[in-house]
Amino acid sequence: MHWRAKGLLQKLLGHMPGGEQAHYLLQKRFGGLRGFTREFEIKMDDWRLMASHLHDAGRPIAGARLFEIGSGWYPTFPLACYLGGAKQVITVDLHRHLKHDLLLECADHLAEHTALIAQACNVPETEVQRRQRRLSARLQQGDDLAAATDGVVIYQAPIDASCTALPTHGIDCVFSNSVLEHVEPAVVDGIYREAMRILVPGGIMFHSVNCGDHYAYVDHSINQLNYLKYSDHDWHRWDNAFLYQNRMRAYEFVDHAEAAGFDIVLNTECPREKRLAELAAMHVHPQFAHIPPERLCVTSIDFIGRTHLTGAAT
């Protein structure tokens, strides 16, 4: 599908009564939800990487109090954390997207990953298997997410992650996966400030950001740098309620975190030869001309920011 056609269709659906449900059905029939298993496997690999980064940063998942920004259609990360022994996982979304049928499918598919979860969280696999079986059974019998996880996983939507009602210094780790690239830059700063408030002293904030042009996933005639051809004014016509892209570059997410007071302890920013070549072969809009190519071309990044041990800002 041509990326412009998708952008216009999504913009139209965003202004129609019932547009959100229509968009969901289209995603199941033609989009990312069409192949649940493939998408789920990608999410689990992302979760494995997050668990590894958190472990290396001294904040293992087992026993942790976690806060996820952007629950999505089904809560893969929160459920994997629950199976791995997290003390609490609060997951929030600005809009209520969670679908019960996908939640059930997610819980069932986790049965195939109990060994991975056990290893990543350093807990016995028998315990992970026990939790998974109980989770699937309780969801099948009609329990909601909180009841099915004995109160560990709490889903809240609509909630603005930049302005929660959570207590100060009550969370060990704030995290997101492929979310911040869809948030307005000013709101990204608000999310960082709120994370600083709710994190315990020495707590960490982990974000995995996919900051390439997402239209490239449906239109293979373009690459993930395509949207850098356009000014903000021109790009606005393609942004929509279902696929807003802020076009922030990878380093900017880290710089903004530092400005909010976080100490950066992980930064995977790395220019790829393929992206550098793609950038050199295209016309970039002058508004991006001040950014060095090796920074402009980066389309994904994982980073961790840590609050000061002496106490977070309020």
Automatic annotation (TrEMBL):
Keywords: Methyltransferase, Transferase. Pfam families: Methyltransf_11. It comes from the Bacteria. InterPro entries: Methyltransf_11 (IPR013216), SAM-dependent_MTases_sf (IPR029063). GO terms for biological process: methylation. Residues 145-206 form the Methyltransferase type domain. One of its GO terms (molecular function) is S-adenosylmethionine-dependent methyltransferase activity. This is Class I SAM-dependent methyltransferase.
